[in-house]
Amino acid sequence: MKKIIAIIFCFIFVTSFSSASTEYILKKKTKSSASKNKVEKKKDGYAKLFKEKKKLTSCKTNDVGLFLYEDKLYMELPLSNMGREFLISSVISSSSSLLLNGKNANQPLCVVIDKIDTLAVLKAPRGIYAVDTGERDLQNGVEGSHSEPIIAVFPIKAWNADSTKFVFDVTSFFKSSDKRIFDVTNEPYGDGLSISSVSVKSENEFFEDIVAYDKCVCVNKTFSGELTLRMMLGEISDKPFCQFNLQTLITLLPESANMMKPREANGNVGTGYVRFEDFRNIADVKKGYYVTRRRYQKGDDITFYVDTIMSESWRNAVAKAAEGWNDAFEHQNLGRPIKLLPYLADSTFNSGDPLKNIISFANNMEQSVTTRNIIDPRTGEILSSRIRIPRNLVNDVRRNGITKMAEVDERYRTYYIPDDLLCEILQARVLTAFGRSLGLSTNLSGSAAYSPEQLRSPEFTQKYGITASVMDGMIYNYLAMPGDKERGVVLTFNKPGICDEFVLKYLYTPVYNEDIATLKSWVLEHAGDARFNYGKKTLSLASDPYAQENDLGNNPVEAFETLFHHLKYAANHCAEWFDRDHLPTDFTVFFPEFIALEIINQIRPMSMYIGGISNNNWIPECCTPTSIPVPKSIQRNVLISMLKNFGDLSWMDKCDDILKLHAITNGVDGWSDRNRLAVSVYLFNRLSRMSLSVDHSKDPYTPSDFLNDVEDYCFASVKKGRSLTDKEHWAISTYISLLIQNSTELKTISDDKKKKSESLVDSNIISAFSMINNVGVEPVSELEYYHAHDLSALIYQKLKDARHLLTKARKHAIGDYEKGKIDYLIMLTERVLK
After folding, report:
1. Are 75 and 170 in contact, with CB atoms under 8 Å apart?
2. Within a 10 A sphere around the Cβ of 797, how many other Cβ atoms?
3. Is the residue at 179 inside a domain?
């Protein structure tokens, strides 16, 4: 019995001990786990860094996060995204100056974010380059030489609990004074003004909030700054103070395996572009270009969300523009991709998302529809577009439409532009905007493709429109005349042009392995056809007059004189259309200036024909590119038409109706004379820029021909044996002064005698043969091998001729006052001739 009791006791003891041990071990394990948890919690540095949760704001996507804490901005990145490329782009979301609302505020910046030890590092990405796939050694060499330079370094401030993410302080990088984030230099600021610089007031700068969208995060800042403005003659003293709200987008770009396949651009096709270095021919390393385009295949949708605050009629105009591009896609067998949806009431939709395609109603002072694309700089992929339609669009119609079109279309003969007309103009403007959102670029040759006869034909304009490319921006068919509208002539473009459809083909038609030969073959199919010309901005030393703003048709003289006809009509009838007592003062005061500015806007496009060169980019690479000088007859006719029309603006001076509307400087008396001087200066600037055209022509229009024609105009009365008119006195005085200014030697003599130096002509005439041979994508920015002719002997002879003609004019002068004016002109010539 004792033995049994002893066994039971032992069992209980062992069991109790075992239980106690187990309990002790469990307690010890629990305590150890708690201790371990505490250690792990300590590893979560976020809690330590962001101690007061009430002060913390955060936003995240799967790729990147932001924290805003005590006026500091932190970025969070997962380790899995180290070495990846991010895009940083800024836009002015709102401003105290409505002129700046919606403007891009930086050149989108591509950065690589990486980690080195305890540092987060921002690096510039490797250069984009192309190497033949078979050249492995060359590819390795290029990769090795294209390192990623460091542009900013930030200490890592904290890790998350499982050490998969970390944060670093980027407050200093997102300073508004950093031009990588905010730079509006050269942005227009009202008529004739642009921004020279912005002095940001750092004491007024603060982070407003941070926001996460589907694929990106955004930083919203508020700050103020003092604007320095400039006009043509230099900076102005007035420095307006401006408040800005800046939205800066941070988005992760696709990895190389998921990037859109890039397509090479062609200098004859009007597309946007991104640059790369082309190493495929090691003996001719050069700059290459990829087009900008959507990631699109037939059957995909390109969806735009349309602001519902716009009226139904305006939304219908936008829809018509979209369908115009869908028709163009369909003509190329590419489907109908553009879909429009209204802003969604759904809480997941946010119109501020920078990576959504948005068509918004803009509360700013703009008068034109604007487009902002966000583009992957590595491939040219358009990630999103934002089209802004201004509330002041009607002012653009009043400014441009009334002066050009009122004679042809009675709907323009009022301050209160009817909605149906406004919708036609809106449709045209949005057509251009959609084009930009699809990857097309400005094409200044589009409006010069058709003849005046074609632009007055109902059948032709209904089939082809009024321009070969809506990317030209000339939306008014001012070659139309009264009665053309009733016959069915199209007055504004309402669908993409034939050139636009070809650009769509180039951008979006599938090409096996992006074969360059196939793309080039498409381009060469249209060689020599003016409808498919791509016009870029050119330099004045080698101007292409068929690639300009403010022109229409391929006959410059007829277009110029037709426009003048319309302007005279508007000047003579405007008082019938506008009741000054019931209209805003800013319109009644400035409407006459609209007419004047329209006149001035014709000076450059017309004068570019004098000494102009039509650039021929349609030559295959195996041949030498050529340039075609503007024919002698056209140059002469342009000069004579300009002298005749600009020389007689008396229809403005004599029009009482304009004076009743206040007009320029409270009256147009003398405006004609002042403007004639501006015209003369611009024309004489062409004199020193005629060499290229002369050198390339078998029958050139020479500087001697130019000066003979000007002389015939200025001295017309003298050569007919009559006394000089007041206008001829003014013209001769300007003629003599500009002759002297165009000769370095004579100008030096004149300056010595006048004891002052003054120049109207740019003497830095440098070379230009590469411009002629240019078949690149970018606008020309430099010239080579330009042979500038010495005009000194010719100008000296023309001054002697002028003195001789003035001596003859003195014999026909009536009265001493008339003779005194001629004596003064003779003195001007003799001062440099003796």
Report:
1. yes
2. 12
3. yes
